Each structure stands twice: as structure tokens, then as C-alpha cells.
Amino acid sequence: MTTRLVLAPLHGITGRVFRHALFSVFPGLDEAVAPFIAAIPDAADARPSHYKDLVPSDPAVPRLVPQLMGNDPGSLASTMGALAALGYDEVNWNLGCPYPMVTRKKRGAGLLPHPELVEPCLDAMAGAGMRAGMAVSVKLRLGLKSPDELAALVPVLNRYPLASVTVHPRLASQMYGGLPDLDAFAAIAPGLRATLVFSGDVRQKEDMVALSSRFPFIKAWMLGRGVLMDPFLPAKIRGLCLPGSPLPALEEFHARLYDGYRNSLHGPRHLLDKMKEVWQYLARAFPDSDGLAKAVSKTKTPAEYEQVVRRLFRS
Q: pLDDT tens, 83-140?
């Protein structure tokens, strides 16, 4: 049914700490695309903090693909060169971010209505890739406001030897609400020459079965919020043996997350904010998801938080 499962780049969530905990505890994923970093000029001279989510490499993650956000050809090429020097062999270009603060600057999905801006960027990235032995992939949506935007962009994308094109079948104007437009995806996708990766609304194995039946040409799938809500999802999709009780694995996952954030974030407030954000999704893996999320959200100190979570895993 599937050949490749990829962890989606969810900005602010699926960073180094989350990836390490997830891949260390739960099987089934083949690789991850990292949340985007900005493409910058003179990237080789950037502060190490610019690449802190990518360096050093994590042996728990079989393969990690950095993602770039930007619309300046020179900056994209420069940052690709710096990433190649760090040992990466592929970079993903973000043409899908739907947030207005990004799209207004003609970045992310804001580039989709502008093939005239996309083409010089891909020229620069293809050249940088040839020089550095680095592949280029793209992640995008159906359009900013209309699927006609992606349809018009297809001939441009097809001029380049892209490693893959990941399509989230929503418009940026939808953000993450509403239904994906599978009919528009079905009309546009066969015209793309690159390997296609489907992203969006795979929340359970049955979703994958239905989508695979409709789109048998899709051989790679990107999983995002579905994995956050059910870390066992990749294993379920692959038909792997699951534990009799999910609690021990979820407890280990939580412990790795909590320790990782406690050692990398500054102060208890940042730690609690991060864990509360994770629990907005992870609570779905437990029977009383609404009550659990509410109990976690009410905690005001790490001690209170630890007490709530300890009760959960000992119940």
C-alpha cells in the first residue's frame, strides 16, 4: 500500500526534540522534513544557531531533509551550499506555508500565483544542487486562492529534475480548515513529472486505505497532525505489531519530550507552553481527551504539570 512515510514539518512542533523522541520510541516512519529555516545570503557565515535544529545529526532519525523558506534566488542557493557542507543531500523548498504574515511577502504559498518568481528561484536551486550534489524537492498547496494557480505552475515545475513534489490538497486561504479538494488534486497531480508525496488529513489507517485506492500512483505519504494525535499511526499503516497497552510507549515518549524540552528551553513558562501545545494533539491518544487537555492546560507550574501527567500514566 505504501513505500515511504515522511514526518511533516510542523513549525514550532516537529523540531529536534520532538523528532528524537518520536523516532526513538515509535516505528514506521522512514524520514522527516525539518521545519523551515530562512534562506539567507552568505549562509556559510551564518551563526551556528541558524542551523541548531539540523546540527548535529540525530542517529535516531534515519533521514532528515532540511526545508527552506525564501523567495530570493541568491539566498536559496547560498543556504543550499551551506547545508551541503553540513552533510545534507537534499533540500525542500516551502511553497505551502499558508500564514498571511508569510504569504503577504510572497513567500510560502504566497509564491504560488507567481510562476515568474518561482522560476528564477528553481534555476538558482537547480544550479546549486548540481554544484553540491544535492537534490531539490518542493512542498506546496493547490494554490493561494485557487487551484488554477498550481495548474499554471506545473509546466514550470516540470522543467526541473525535482526529487519530489509534496502536495497538500488545500488552498492557503483555507489554512487547515475545511475539506481537502481531492477532485482538484486528481485533475492536477498526474501532470506533475516528479515523484508525488501526498500530505494532509491522514488521521487513521482507513484514511490511507481510501486515498491509496483513489490515487494508486501515490507511493509516498507525509504524516503530520495524524502522528501528533496518534504516534502509533505509522506502525498501524504498515501493519506492524502493536503493544498490548499503549501506555508504556506513550509514557516513554512523553519522558523523552519533557526531558528534551527541559534541557533546551529557557525557564518553566517556556517548558509548560511547549508541553501544553503538544498535548493539544497528544491528548487524542487517550480516552478522555477533552478532560486531559483541560487538566494539562490549567497547570501553572512544572510540579503541577508533572502531578497531572503522573496520575495519567498510573491510572
A: 999 999 999 999 999 999 999 999 999 999 999 999 999 999 999 999 999 999 999 9
Quick one: cell of 236?
498501524
Q: Check whether residue 14 and residue 80 sit in a common domain.
A: yes
Q: In the prediction, which pLDDT does 288 show?
A: 82
Q: Are 145 and 217 part of one and the same domain?
A: yes
Residue 44: which residues within 8 A CB-CB, separation 6 or more?
Answer: 78, 81, 82, 85
CA dist 132 to 81, 91, 128, 158, 287, Å?
A: 7, 11, 6, 21, 49
CATH label of the domain that carries residue 203:
3.20.20.70
How far is Cα 23 from Cα 7, in angstroms, rounded to an integer? 10
What 259-267 contacts at long range (C-beta under 8 Å, 24+ apart), as own/partner pairs, is 260/16, 260/17, 260/18, 260/20, 260/21, 261/17, 262/302, 264/16, 264/17
Residue 292 corresponds to which cell in the numbers above?
Answer: 486531559
The answer on 175 and 84 residing in a single domain is yes
pLDDT digits (tens, 9 = 90+) for 204-232: 999 999 999 999 999 999 999 999 999 99
DSSP strand E in 144-264: where? 165-171, 196-199, 220-223
Number of domains in the chain: 2
CA-nearest of 195, 218, 196 to 207 is 218
